[in-house]
From TrEMBL:
Name the record gives this protein: MBL fold metallo-hydrolase
Cofactors: Zn(2+)
PANTHER family given in the database record: HYDROXYACYLGLUTATHIONE HYDROLASE GLOC (PTHR46233)
Keywords: Hydrolase, Metal-binding, Zinc
SMART domains from the UniProt entry: Lactamase_B
Metallo-beta-lactamase domain mapped to chain residues: 13-195
MF annotations from Gene Ontology: hydrolase activity; metal ion binding
């Protein structure tokens, strides 16, 4: 059974996720921890729960989701993976991080790439990679169909959607990702978003003012 622990980090109020199961193996998704106290908070949880971090996944390369990449890879000796199309987005962070006050940002590059249909494995758990461009060109999500759980990054929020005015964003592509991929899944799937509270696909189909398909 997947256990989801979320942390809200950095001034962008980004959701960092630690996914684990009964074996104690864990995956960190989108580490936004930049300040030392944020890093300590995340590490304390992992230690207290006796977890073994075996993977680091970026849903996309925007600054708020990657500030802790260096910390996680060095502390736990894991590799970082993402979609290849978002590498330019990730590399750009180093050039603009100081303008947001992140003068100590330490860039890393992905060790390998994830594509639609690939499987993330930890313990007894498998999660499927979904390719969900629009907010960023190489945006991905992590889906467990049997446990009805989706880590959506910044594609879909509770009654909102990801912004598309950043380089590589495209509003129509984002809506296609939501309507043609996410909204074909079960209504009961719980969506863990990159910002804000979780929601369900059924709720968003009916009430999301940007992309609802049901009345």
């Amino acid at each position: 059974m997947i256990h989801v622990k979320s942390f809200v980090f950095n001034p962008f109020m980004e959701n960092t996720y630690v996914l684990s199961d009964e074996t104690g193996e864990a995956v960190v998704v989108d580490p936004g921890c930049y300040e030392e106290y944020e890093q300590e908070m995340l590490a304390a949880y992992i230690e207290q729960e006796g977890l073994k971090v075996i993977d680091l996944i970026n849903t996309h390369g925007h600054i708020d989701h990657v500030l802790g990449n260096y910390f996680i890879t060095r502390k736990y000796g894991v590799k970082m993976r993402m979609h290849e199309l978002d590498v330019p987005v990730l590399k750009a962070v180093e050039s603009y991080a100081p303008s947001y006050g992140f003068n100590e940002y330490q860039p890393i590059e992905p060790d390998s790439f994830l594509n639609e249909g690939d499987l993330i494995r930890f313990g007894n758990t498998e999660m499927e990679i979904m390719f969900l461009p629009g907010h960023a060109p190489g945006h991905i999500g992590l889906l467990s169909r049997d446990q009805k759980l989706l880590v959506s990054g910044d594609v879909l929020f509770r009654e909102s959607v990801g912004r598309t005015d950043l380089p590589g964003g495209d509003h129509n592509t984002l809506l296609d990702s939501i309507r043609e991929k996410l909204f074909t899944l079960d209504d009961e799937i719980v969506v863990y978003c990159g910002h804000g509270p979780e929601t369900t696909l059924g709720h968003e189909k009916r009430y999301n003012p940007f992309c609802a398909i049901e009345v």
